[in-house]
């Protein structure tokens, strides 16, 4: 950045990575004419983003494809008059954008401007990696989830359009594995079927991972996804305790998680379970109940997390004032993770370490991770992750 001296530096940040973005902005401030941030964090915290990061010139609120283009034009014209809709600028009144961008008219990402060959992903089963978003929004009501950017209205690209992009990244960028970053890829069964059938019809040689809900899959769908190149599905299981699921407003039952993981295994797919430990109302016994439940699920991978009431979530309104100590896992990126729990933070920290060690320090998971690192070309990333986990566990 010091060498390029850009007119404009743009960053996106979720709340857990806002402190990292703030450090980058402070470092880059002398070398960029304008600095703008978008994404979930500035959208959730609003005007206070300029108190948190005074070096910012502007913040794009919500889905920013249209707003940021208008912001660039405003700056180019000398910043005359009111800033465009969907943009916050210190000293100006904020105008909320009335409509999000049309998901069907957003251009393809300019991947040719990225060093595509440098990207790695440990869960990839083939070398050559990229991400893809085929839908936005989520109609569900999980209390810990921030939907301030994409909202609750689900909007999806057509199956043909999605597969066109998949074919393009294979042909033009040598991609072998795609991670779908949709909030819920499996939301509409008929759309997933249409995408898979189009991949198979084109005989597209690609493998991929997606996020799904345990109440939206079945063995027939999963087998079709496997034939179309899917290799792993991540599920938000969260807990083995019905009371915790009710607090988190997951609207799923423990039995549905059991059925989904059994079907995923039978279809020949790998599974990743997202688990939250120590939510309000849980003691040590309830946490260990969830750990036993995770073991019974037979998940191939697990990510254990503590519960944080993030700005923009229903949980923040009801439990944000109760945030306690810093309880994290080895893959958390935030500098300070204020956890919402009834347990003493020190005890939840010990249980968190017990969970990660108990699941991953076994021959089969370690062999699986080594195999993935080899298949994806992610040896260096796996080494860094292993070292971080070792330091954290010790």
Number of helices: 14
* Radius of gyration over C-alpha positions, nearest whole angstrom: 22 Å
The helix-and-strand class reads alpha/beta
Give the % helix. Answer: 25-40%
In terms of DSSP E residues, the strand content is: 5-15%
Low-confidence blocks of residues = none
**SSE ordering:** EHEHHEHEEEEHEHEHEHHEHEHHHH
Q: Give the integer mean of the pLDDT values.
A: 93
**What spatial form do the alpha-carbon principal axes imply?**
globular
Side by side, the strands of the main sheet go: 5-8-9-10-11-12
Number of strands: 12
Distance between the termini: 37 Å
Main sheet: strands, sense, barrel:
6 strands, parallel
Would you mind describing this structure in some detail?
The structure is a single chain. By secondary structure, the protein is an alpha/beta fold. Helices cover 40% and strands 14% of the residues. It has helices at 18-28, 40-45, 49-52, 65-76, 159-173, 189-202, 219-227, 242-248, 254-266, 284-297, 314-319, 345-360, 363-376, 379-393; strands spanning 8-12, 34-38, 58-60, 87-88, 129-132, 135-136, 155-156, 177-180, 207-212, 230-238, 270-277, 301-306. The strands form 3 sheets. It has a 6-stranded parallel sheet with strand order 5-8-9-10-11-12. Strands 1-2-3-4 form a 4-stranded mixed sheet. The radius of gyration is 22 Å and the shape is globular. The two termini are 37 Å apart. The model has no long low-confidence stretch (mean pLDDT 93).
Provide a concise account of the structure shown.
This protein is α/β, with parallel strands linked by helices. The protein contains 14 helices and 12 strands. The chain has helices at 18-28, 40-45, 49-52, 65-76, 159-173, 189-202, 219-227, 242-248, 254-266, 284-297, 314-319, 345-360, 363-376, 379-393, and strands at 8-12, 34-38, 58-60, 87-88, 129-132, 135-136, 155-156, 177-180, 207-212, 230-238, 270-277, 301-306.
């Amino acid at each position: 950045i010091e060498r390029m001296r850009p007119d404009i530096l743009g960053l996106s940040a979720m709340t857990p990575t806002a402190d990292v973005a703030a450090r980058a902005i402070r470092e880059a401030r002398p070398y960029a004419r304008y600095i703008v941030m978008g994404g979930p964090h500035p959208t959730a915290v609003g005007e206070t983003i300029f108190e948190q990061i005074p070096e910012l010139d502007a913040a794009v609120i919500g889905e920013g494809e249209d707003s940021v283009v208008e912001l660039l034009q405003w700056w180019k014209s000398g910043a005359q008059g009111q800033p465009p809709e969907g943009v916050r600028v210190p000293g100006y009144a904020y105008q909320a954008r009335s409509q999000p961008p049309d998901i069907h008219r957003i251009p393809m990402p300019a991947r040719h401007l990225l060093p595509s060959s440098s990207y790695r992903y440990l869960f990839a089963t083939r070398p050559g990696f990229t991400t893809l978003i085929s839908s936005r929004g989520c109609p569900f009501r999980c209390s810990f989830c921030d939907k301030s950017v994409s909202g609750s209205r689900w909007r999806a690209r057509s199956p043909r359009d999605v597969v066109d992009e998949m074919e393009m990244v294979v042909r033009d960028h040598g991609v072998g594995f795609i991670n779908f970053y949709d909030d819920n890829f499996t939301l509409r069964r008929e759309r997933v079927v249409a995408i898979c059938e189009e991949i198979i019809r084109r005989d597209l040689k690609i493998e991929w991972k997606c996020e799904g809900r345990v109440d939206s899959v079945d063995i027939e769908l999963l087998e079709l996804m496997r034939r179309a190149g899917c290799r792993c599905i991540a599920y938000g299981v969260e807990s083995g305790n019905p009371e915790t699921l009710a607090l988190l407003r997951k609207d799923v039952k423990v039995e549905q998680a059991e059925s989904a993981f059994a079907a995923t295994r039978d279809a020949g797919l790998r599974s990743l379970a997202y688990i939250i430990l120590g939510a309000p109302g849980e003691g040590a016994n309830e946490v260990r109940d969830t750990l036993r439940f995770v073991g019974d699920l037979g998940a191939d991978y697990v990510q254990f997390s503590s519960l944080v009431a993030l700005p923009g979530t229903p949980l923040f309104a009801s439990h944000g004032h109760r945030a306690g100590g810093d309880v994290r896992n080895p893959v958390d990126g935030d500098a300070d993770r204020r956890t919402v729990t009834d347990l003493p933070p020190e005890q939840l920290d010990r249980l968190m370490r017990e969970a990660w060690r108990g699941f991953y320090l076994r021959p089969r998971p370690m062999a699986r991770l080594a195999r993935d690192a080899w298949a994806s070309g992610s040896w260096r990333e796996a080494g860094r992750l292993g070292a971080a986990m070792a330091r954290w566990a010790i």
